[in-house]
Amino acid sequence: MLSVRNIAKTFGKNVVLRDISLEVAEGEFLTILGESGSGKTTLLRIIAGFESATSGELRMGGERLDRLPPYKRRVNTVFQHYALFPHLTVEENVAYGLRVARPPENDIDSRVEQALARVKMTAHAKAKPSRISGGQQQRVALARALVKQPKMLLLDEPLSALDANLRRQMQGELKSLQREVGISFVFVTHDQEEAMVMSDRIALLRMGELEQVAAPREIYNRPATAYTAQFIGHTNLLHGEVRSGILRCNSLSWKTNMSDGSALLSVRPENIRLHRATLKSSSDDAVVFRGKVKQKAFHGATELVQIESADGLTLSVRTASQVELQDELEWEFQTCDAVPVRESPERL
Amino acid sequence: MFSRAYRSFVTVPPLTWVVVFLVVPYFLMFCYSFWSVSQSQIIVHIWNLDNYRELLRVPVYWQTLLRSMWIAARVTLFSLMLGYPLAYFLSFYAGARKDLYYQLVIIPLWVSYLVRAYAWKTILGSEGVLNTLLQYLHLTKHPLEFLLYSPFAVVLTLTHIYTPFTFLPIYAALEHIPRNLVEASQDLGASPQQTFWRVIFPLSIPGVLTGATFAFVLSLGDFLAPALLGGPSGIMISNIVVSLFGAAYNWPLGAAISLCMLVLVVSLLFVSERLEKKWSFS
Amino acid sequence: MEFLVSTTMRKDSRPTWLFAHVVAVFFFLYLPIVVLIVYSFNGSGVGGFPPRDLTLAWYRTLFADSAIWESVANSLVVAAAAVAIALGLGIPAALALDRAHFPGKAVFRRLVLLPLILPGIITGLSLLMLFARAQINLSLLTIVIGHGTALISVATTEVFAGLQKLDRAQEEASLDLGANYWQTFWRVTLPNLKLPIIGAALLIFTLSMDEIAVSFFLIGRDNTLPLEIWGRLRRGITPEINAISTIIFSFSLVVIVLWYRLRARAEGSPEIAAELIETPVQGD
């Protein structure tokens, strides 16, 4: 659907995007995820047409998109603060895109009605934006963008201004809306949980470069880099040495296929469990060790526990079991859950 | 958040001054307008409506008032026509040089009004810069008479004075428009012209109203430019008032005209404020 | 970041006619000023094109002209007094409007701001009638009162705008730490109003130096500079006026540039701090 090829962007001396290449498939919900300053909003604005890339190109359906001004692109945007026109009613806002089209579209009224019904804002059709709530404004912004039947919808952190509960609700609604409408949604956010909940695929952006692009499950279970592992969910990063098929990390060791040299491994807290004394102890598949409980944090269904091993290794463990501070217990994790990751290069 | 002492400290002095030097004088003006002046130039304190009858009866007064309003209207129109595109350019196209351009617009305001009017006089006179230039370039043979001592000169000079004054509130209003609205409009398919007329202009109307009111009211009450440049055909209502307080010594009549002007101006301000409220959406 | 600035309309995409218009307007605005300055050096006086003989003769005449310099001195005194009055009353007025609630606040606001929009003639005449009834002779003092009255609104507007920008949390922190209202005012509020107050002072000073409409009716024996100039204009045009205007203009220009430098330097830190607080909300 959309082809992003080698897009780079520099503002003065500031390199904001370096060589970004990405394909957005038709009908997919893709999230561009990143911290402040990662370049995610800039990338979105380049796709929308409000910035021009310093180099690279955009193609949609084979045609060059980046040569067109924003008002000629079949792409519409839902802005972070909604950008509803304060001097027009909800209805007029939604109709705007249809009215300015040349030639003006047909059936404006019925299409507006449909769009409002779809986002459940029919009752507020004649209100001005200043009179409706943030969540409602957001729906209107959605309706306004979708009524034009764009090929792709861009959403710039649309939920960041909402409070937690409303946010969760809207996440669900947006997801089902996308399924219903069937077009590609490119969603920008800094909230990794949000990205995982909503996306078909996540494109993780760090300091202007793509760190990893994959489905949520893949990114979570098989992070490619240390940054990815730490940004998405919690993780423990273990530094180790591989020699002749044995990986050593402090006092822990296990067999591995990795080649010799230093290694970096990511082990998710929920993959570390209390060791149950069974028939096997310290087999090739599991690593067992002792750790003292130093801190606990109650998270409802689970607790996030900091344990410290005798040789000073500190790990985070997510467990549903009840443990007490200062408990000295035996813990284990499967070797397959220790995922090797690359170190993310330092970028200036 | 305030103690009584603090509150009286901040309200009493300004309030007192305002009452003594604004309210009382206006009230006096009101009183004077109902008195009259005797043959020996003494103010006679008998309350009557003679002055107002005079104003209605004698054509020169309301004719001059109408002419003044017509001049003020033209000044307002031209100032807006000059000032709006200027403000639009600065706000949307000037980029990094915005501040510099802004200062350039403001600087002429730091040259005294009187001096600028005087400068126009030297430009527009029959021996003035413009006429001699035109003759030098052989574009004209004789000096153009209408340039000076005419309503044209007054309108020109006042437009020059008040263009920065219409510029300022329009610029402020345009700056206030969130840029994401412009982007949203473009995103939805509107061309720059459509975006201007459907989004930018409507949201700038309060600024336009403020600027227009300012230009109109101050032009209406102006007596300097007409005195210097207007000639007999360019006399405005304030010139009449000035002479009534000067050589023509008739304070009560002058007060009556001033009071009418005050009422007119205050009504205009009131209407303008109402309209501004109607057109502001924030 | 660049989110705040529209990059949709860039330099390369600006319409030519708009730029041409802007150039034309600037030409219109600066023409009289340029003519004024150029002809102050012109030997053959104010008319005529092209300007010939470059000379400083008019400036020499000007410096010998004691009447003008007396009027300049008068104007300076009046302006200083006007600044004192306008600020002395305008700052409390701004505070009252920003924070206090009292009956008649709306009327108060309108009254204070009225002279700003009213033609000077009305303010001048009404005060004249007051002085006449009170049998106060016209003099520099009456002019000072006139300027003060007319210019309180300028002080109020500027300081009010400054108050609106003020972060209440600072004052609340001060109170929280044990300072009372007066201390908070002197140690926290006032220092933050330094810029608007200085700006207002400069503006009032300039407006007072130029003021003629109100002064016209309240003048006694002593002239202010604009009235002195006005008097001479009635008698005929002399390029001395160009000379004094050029001097004052240059002076004002220096003052504005210094003022902008001062402001840019002072606003450097707080403005950047404010932007830093805002940008994380926007993302990148």
Description:
The complex is a heterotrimer of chains A (348), B (282) and C (284). Chain A is elongated, with a radius of gyration of 25 Å. Chain A is 23% helix and 35% strand. In chain A, helix 2 (90-99) packs across helix 3 (108-118) and helix 2 packs parallel to helix 4 (134-146). Chain A has eight helices and 20 strands. Chain A is α+β, with helices and mostly antiparallel strands and 348 residues long. Chain B contains twelve helices and two strands, in the order H-E-E-H-H-H-H-H-H-H-H-H-H-H. Chain C has 284 residues and is mostly helical. The longest helix of chain C is centred in the last third of the chain and has 43 residues, at 240-282. The interface between A and B is medium-sized, with 28 and 20 residues.
Topology:
The complex is a heterotrimer of chains A (348), B (282) and C (284).
Chain A: E1 2-11, E2 14-24, E3 29-34, H1 40-48, E4 55-60, E5 63-64, E6 75-78, H2 90-99, H3 108-118, H4 134-146, E7 152-156, H5 164-181, E8 184-189, H6 192-198, E9 201-206, E10 209-214, H7 216-221, H8 226-231, E11 236-243, E12 246-249, E13 252-255, E14 261-267, E15 273-274, E16 286-298, E17 303-308, E18 314-319, E19 328-334, E20 339-340
Parallel strand pairs in A: 3-8, 3-9, 6-7, 7-8
Antiparallel strand pairs in A: 1-2, 1-4, 4-5, 9-10, 11-12, 11-14, 12-13, 14-20, 15-19, 16-17, 16-19, 17-18
Helix pairs in contact in A: 2-3, 2-4, 3-4
Chain B: H1 4-32, E1 36-37, E2 43-44, H2 50-57, H3 59-93, H4 98-106, H5 113-124, H6 129-136, H7 151-176, H8 179-187, H9 192-220, H10 224-230, H11 237-244, H12 251-278
Antiparallel strand pairs in B: 1-2
Chain C: H1 16-40, H2 57-64, H3 66-99, H4 105-117, H5 120-133, H6 140-165, H7 168-176, H8 181-192, H9 194-210, H10 213-218, H11 225-235, H12 240-282
